[in-house]
Write a structure and sequence with these properties.
about 290 residues; alpha/beta; Rossmann fold; eight-stranded mixed β-sheet; two-stranded antiparallel ribbon
């Protein structure tokens, strides 16, 4: 559960801005997610001194620099192991992991499925623009077939990854999708993700106007999930995840189950009686 500030003076969204100005290209969809994150933090009254934003490498992974909380930019694709480690070390922290489709689904892809199945109480915000932006416009894991870039001058032959179907199949406890062009709706999804007790995956369709401007392509295809959509029904969620005629947004799936922290806090484990605290100083002494 996100920890609120003790002060009676509620922080406004602007109070979560750091002194570092965002360095994204004009019109980047990541501005929309950042604005939504500020709003969500304010609504939840998050304590900046008890909040950690972790990222990998890429345009979107610069985000921790722009938020007035603790921040950690890790190596390429390693956002989830670091975020999970921080949460285990300090379960009272509100941990938010951020990154892009290249960082999360390419080099970091091996971590995603296992992070999902372990169900740590963290929120993972992925800004998906279907292209590598920081390295100047190469094909990413979510780029469409036939997409011509510097790395695929004759068009990509790779079938794109379906992130939503991937996390659903891995056993995610909350999966949602938003659009950076609708920051109000995206704010609500981020709030739900942070409040969710477990791993919350929020895919944000975040166009890159410099290397793959999909605003005009995506905007008419964005639509809310059907009113009768049941977020507790995995098969319904999967059906919506595989739609290719439209881009559904909203909470695809939401089911509360035991978290990683609940397992690591077991007190009646049979080895507990014989275990002792590890003292690194004592270990070093033994080698002197």
């Amino acid at each position: 559960m996100a920890k609120k500030r003790a002060s009676k003076n509620k922080l406004k969204p602007k109070d979560y801005k750091s002194h570092t100005k965002p360095t994204w290209c004009p019109g980047c969809g990541d501005f929309g997610l950042l604005a939504s994150l500020y709003q969500a933090m304010s609504q939840l009254e998050l304590d900046p001194s008890n909040t950690l934003v972790v990222s990998g490498i890429g345009c979107s992974s610069r985000l921790p620099f722009f938020v007035k909380t603790y921040g950690f930019q890790t190596a390429h694709g390693r956002v989830l192991p670091v975020a999970i480690g921080a949460k285990i070390a300090n379960p009272d922290l509100t941990v938010i992991a951020v990154g892009g489709d290249g960082d999360g689904f390419s080099i970091g892809g091996g971590h995603l499925a296992h992070a999902v199945r372990r169900n740590p109480n963290i929120t993972y915000l992925v800004m998906d623009n279907n292209v590598y932006g920081l390295t100047k416009g190469q094909t990413s894991p979510t780029s469409p077939v036939g997409f011509k870039t510097k790395s695929t001058p004759y068009g990509s032959s790779d079938v794109p990854i379906n992130p939503m179907a991937w996390v659903l199949a891995s056993g995610v406890s909350l999966a949602a999708r938003g659009f950076s062009g609708n920051p109000k709706h995206l704010t609500d999804l981020i709030v739900q993700g942070i409040q969710h007790p477990g791993f919350a995956f929020v895919q944000t369709m975040s166009p890159c106007p410099t290397f793959y401007n999909t605003f005009d392509l995506w905007r008419p295809k964005i639509e809310d999930l059907p009113e009768d959509h049941d977020p507790g029904d995995l098969m319904q969620a999967m059906e919506q995840a595989f739609r290719d005629d439209m881009i559904p947004v909203g909470v695809f799936y939401n089911q509360v189950r035991p978290t990683l922290e609940s397992h690591t806090r077991v007190t009646n484990h049979p080895l507990k009686a014989t275990a002792r605290d590890f003292d690194p100083c004592e270990l070093l002494q033994s080698y002197r």
